[in-house]
Amino acid sequence: HLCALSSTTTFVFLSTGPPVLGSLVRGKVGQDITVPCFYSVKRTEDITSMCWGRDNCPASKCYRTIIWTDGWKVTQQHSSRYTLKGNLLTGDVSLTIVNAEEADGGTYCCRVEIPGLFNDQMSNHEVVIEKGDISTASPHTYTPEQTS
């Protein structure tokens, strides 16, 4: 039985506009890797559409979109390897990359469409996929990254 050894570090992207939150997620080839993204749902009226895309969040929508939801269910899915396993109705729109490949590494944008001008909640996430040598890896030794 192999443990999923992925780590997440949260940080804020500095920009001239509103702060764009983000995270650094590390995983190994062949693992399922979850990239965290949440928004606040206090009542059903708060449930809203969102998208995941590759690269940093653009001015609107998502670039190279891999998933769209209408807030209640996934309405567009680029590949079955990209899935949302959280409870959408509670604002858990974390992306799970199934059976990760090296090509899955890079930047992902989570964009939640909040009504109003410039209200969208955006976060950019850096995903690092390392080659996993399953035969020699010790499944239970794992050192989390130190963050300052």
From TrEMBL:
Domain of life: Eukaryota
Signal peptide residue numbers: 1-22
UniProt keyword Membrane, yes or no: yes
GO-annotated molecular function: phosphatidylserine binding
PROSITE patterns, alphabetized: IG_LIKE
Residue ranges constituting the Ig-like domain according to the UniProt record: 18-130
Membrane topology: Single-pass type I membrane protein
One Pfam assignment: V-set
Major localisation: membrane
Compartments, as annotated in UniProt: Membrane
UniProtKB keywords: Disulfide bond, Glycoprotein, Immunoglobulin domain, Membrane, Signal, Transmembrane, Transmembrane helix
GO CC entries: membrane
SMART domains recorded: IG
GO biological process: apoptotic cell clearance; cytoskeletal rearrangement involved in phagocytosis, engulfment
SUPFAM superfamilies according to UniProt: Immunoglobulin
UniProt similarity note: Belongs to the immunoglobulin superfamily. TIM family.
Name the record gives this protein: HAVR1 protein
